[in-house]
Amino acid sequence: MRVLVTGASGLLGRAAARRLIDRGDEVTVLQRRSAGLPCREVRGDVADPAVAARALRGQDAVLHLAAKVDVTGRWADYASANVDGTRALLAGCRTAGVGRFVYVSSPSVAHAGAALAGVGAEPADPARTRGHYSRSKAIAEREALAADAPSLAVLAVRPHLVWGPGDTQLVARVVARARAGRLPVIGSGAALIDTTYVDNAAGALVAGVDACGPVHGEALVVSNGEPRPVGEVLARLCRAAGVPGPRGRVPFPAAWLAGALAEGAWSVTRRRSTPPLTRFLAEQLATAHWFDQRRTRAALGWRPEVGLDEGFSRLAAWYGSAPVGDGRPG
Amino acid sequence: MTVPIGAPGLDPAWSRFLTVPDAGGTGHRWHVLDNGVRDPRGTLLCVHGNPTWSYLWRRLLRSGPPGWRVVAPDQLGMGWSERLTGPRSLQQRVADLGDLTAALGVTGPVVTVGHDWGGVISLGWALEHRADLCGVVLTNTAVAMPAGDRGPALIRAAHLPGVRAAVTVGTPVFVRAASSLSRPPLPAAVRDALAAPYRSAARRTSVGDFVADIPFAPGHPSRPVQEAIAEGIRGLDVPALLLWGPRDPVFGERYLVDLRSRLPRAQLHRYEGASHLLPEDAPQYAEAVTRWVADLTAGPGPAAPPRTTAAGGTAGRRLWSALADRSGDDSPAVVAPGGSTVSWAQLARRVEQLAAGLAAAGVRPGARVALLVEPSPDLTAAVYAVWRAGAVIVVADKGLGFPGMRRALRGAAVDHVIGSAAGLVAARLMGLAGTRVAAGRIGSAARRALGARHTLGELEVLGRAAPVPAAPPEDADCAVLFTSGATGPAKGVVYTSAQAQAQVELVRSTYGLTAADRLVAAFAPFALLGPALGIGSAVPDVDVTAPGTLTAAALADAAAAVDATVVFASPAALRRVAATAGALTAGQRRALGAVRLLVSAGAPVPAPVLWSLRPVLPAAEAHTPYGMTEALPVTDVSLAGIEAAGTGDGVCVGRPLTGVEVQVSPLSAGAVADGPLTGRPGVSGEVCVRAAHVKDRYDALWATERAASDPPGWHRTGDVGYLDAEGRLWIEGRLAHVVTTAAGPVTPVGIEQRVEELDGVAAAAAVGVGPAGAQVLVVVVVPAGAGRRPGLRGRPALAGTGLADAVRDVARVDVAAVLVAAALPVDIRHQSKVDRRAVAEQAARVLAGARTRRRARPGRP
């Protein structure tokens, strides 16, 4: 199968592309930076129709991960990367006759704030999201699913909190703060959260590429299916990285307020760096977020290969062996 | 005006209009909800009352019996049917309904379903269509004013001319009040849908006319028609089902009594907590109707195979036979707390006289007699006298709490109350019906105030000159007992005389009891069994409803009073006995040293508790039976048996007793016990029991009884377990507590046992959190010495990773979270069963994390 993978320079995109290559698919990757993978590479902006058209020519399927993932910045940047990029690819697919489109999304497109316990994938709703990232992803997911048609099967896959060796988003930030002694537990630390080990998320995306067609027009949340209290997740990540665990507690309302203030301050001062806390993050770390995986597993014919415990062991091994500087925060 | 399309649960496809001429040739435009089944196996004709409309029956339309047409008209002037130019009488309305069903092509078989004043109209139709009729269902309705009754107070108030116009027509008060009666409160969207056809005064004219047509006064024009219907249904020979919401302020208990007197063979299900709008308050009514109708058309199913007889048979013995046998025996039969003694001869004489006195005072065979008397010789005498008189004891213990007792006793429809002064006060507060008999000493002022017509003493005197009643048949009811109410309102459980006798014989044979034994009963239900077993008994000086208060010394004193050889006690009582053993005197130790048998009942007893009792009761063989209010005992295991069984996935409760059959109904992936019964070893499922001493039925709970006795003749216990290769039964927990994970059902007890064996763990509960079918497992641990750790008070908290790892190592299934708590909630009656439902609720709250927005109000579909 000929598959275009966008955003293959990130943790998950690289892992998914690697799997497709390893099993013999003909893979093209598209992103700004080089992904350094042994396959055809198109470099550029997915939102540029010319770039998209070049990358899409002759493909059977698209696995679309390229996105601006952050907690700060201007709305226009998110809209351009996440909404316009998706539109350009969908239009390109129709022109090039590509039959399958797997949109990699996020559970945060469907909700903000309230605790989620064992829910399925509810419809994306930009009005209920928190932050530019979630809102732009929600808009793009809705447009992608609306484009589902007999000639173009569209499937949205939403991995929840992906982590693993080399992760610069979740793991690296947690570890950096813990090392600095500035990783508190927000709230009681008991909120049950789902996470996804990177290999499992990559496996689910590949399964999505295969299932897309018979399964189409719907969104599926992907996780390890092993929810754990957030305090325990943080403690085990820290232990794997060899840094001290979370210290102290911040009550949720204080954290939420701090997040709101930080967002305001970063916005007013137009700082480009990442604020220590946002409301979105405060909610993610203080309220339950775990999902009913039955529909996902049945639809994708997929199960996670790496259990949480094995994932933490692999993370510990990576921290124990990886040379300083290889994605590892100093 | 159109039918509200968005009304919750209403399918617009059901809605149709048709014009039907009446006898006078005037055409009327009807609105009907009709599920449109063609060539139906039968038709449910559902008739609403005032001021609702056919929307009330939407759940029957959605999930009626397969192949049945469901037709629910809006009465003329009501709902979305045409508005009338004048009032419409009961007679006309019955005729209208007949015109409509003819126009709709409704033919038999038909089951009528009626609510409120729709009940009378549906019965009027039923009487005029006897050839088509195959059953009637009635819910919160009345067909007649019981003698001396002037009608429901609320309706009567609305009947006053000025009030009626203002309340029913001029303003939407009556329309809105009707749906405000619902308990629990209805969602706003449903209330709006119910009120939608009645938005203006013009559209409410018939609401007022309907009220005016209720014939309170003898001269009312509709009175003869109403009386003809009320009398006519006495001759109905089709099956009837009564579904009742007891919290109805309009149609109270007396209307149910009246209906039952006219339809004496009717099945009844009381939905505790439900009010007037039963189809709204108890949505599960639709399932009950569907099941009942399916049973009707299935005809008489395979009859329940005869139950095996009690071990050794009952040999014609009755509950009072031992009293007759020992009527010349002056040895103690009953020793009360405080030491007062009643001999066998005294008790036999007293029971006989009291039975004769009760009969002379009007207690008829089959009458229900509530006993509100503290454990005492009076209570024992009263129980056996009621039995001897052929009446039925109704016993609700204090463990249910006052509201629970009230619900239970009112639901049991008692005819008489025997009570101590305190008991009679309680009966008054509960609003129980029935004549009153005072037990024990009572002053004349108190007696008058409490309305006691007799005292036990007077009845005994009366009975000396009266004939002893004939012995009742063995298959007559003899007792209504109540379940613990741990999972909803307590259920009444009816036993026949033969079933109670079979229980006595089973206890006797299981434990080898002979006339040489004497019993100390520190467990309330067994405190009454001594005379039936023919062995002397003593009750320790302790509140038997608070078993945790029993001390070793109190137990020893009771044992000494009767030279006890047998002790019956609950696990909570036994824990306390072991803990207070240090205070025993040498004499008390001697008395306990003579006990040969210790029977612990009420909940599974952990082996360590039994071990701890060895120094206290050195000669006693410890046994623990397994059973429930509906069937006790089912199995038994000795301490040696527990040790020999070792560990398994649950608690080993031993082998089924002689004559008792035990099988399991395997669980589906969603933890529904719908598999065919099997006795195959190792198969886990709902434990089902068949034996001569299993309850006869649940009382006034037709749907519950139907579900529990499936297949017929068996009792579904609600426990999950399996039989092992040795034929031993292992209990894995309550069916309601099975955790339904995506990977399949997980039972709690085995996990809890393995966690409780970890160092530093005092107790554990394994519960599910999340929606059914996608739950995750959570273990809540009480660390040893937790009571002294102030940090643990309040809601459960996250366990450290060390404890979490240790729990996961032994759990064998994925554990999402391990929490620690100072204590686990237990059910109030036995104080020994962990209330896993409460644990699960606590855990779910903790694991939801911070509350970031107001929780949505729980709605109903």
Automatic annotation (TrEMBL), chain A:
One of its GO terms (molecular function) is aldehyde dehydrogenase (NAD+) activity. It comes from the Bacteria. Residues 3-211 form the NAD-dependent epimerase/dehydratase domain. InterPro entries: Epimerase_deHydtase (IPR001509), NAD(P)-bd_dom_sf (IPR036291), NAD(P)-dependent_oxidoreduct (IPR051783). GO terms for cellular component: cytoplasm. PANTHER family: NAD(P)-BINDING DOMAIN-CONTAINING PROTEIN-RELATED, PROTEIN YEEZ. This is Nucleoside-diphosphate-sugar epimerase. It comes from Geodermatophilus sabuli.
Automatic annotation (TrEMBL), chain B:
Pfam families: Abhydrolase_1, AMP-binding. One of its GO terms (biological process) is fatty acid metabolic process. InterPro entries: AB_hydrolase_1, AB_hydrolase_fold, AMP-dep_synth/lig_dom, ANL_N_sf. Gene3D superfamilies: alpha/beta hydrolase, N-terminal domain of ligase-like. Residues 326-695 form the AMP-dependent synthetase/ligase domain. The keyword Membrane does not apply. The keyword Endoplasmic reticulum does not apply. GO terms for molecular function: medium-chain fatty acid-CoA ligase activity. Residues 43-283 form the AB hydrolase-1 domain. Keywords: Ligase. Belongs to the ATP-dependent AMP-binding enzyme family. This is Acyl-CoA synthetase (AMP-forming)/AMP-acid ligase II.
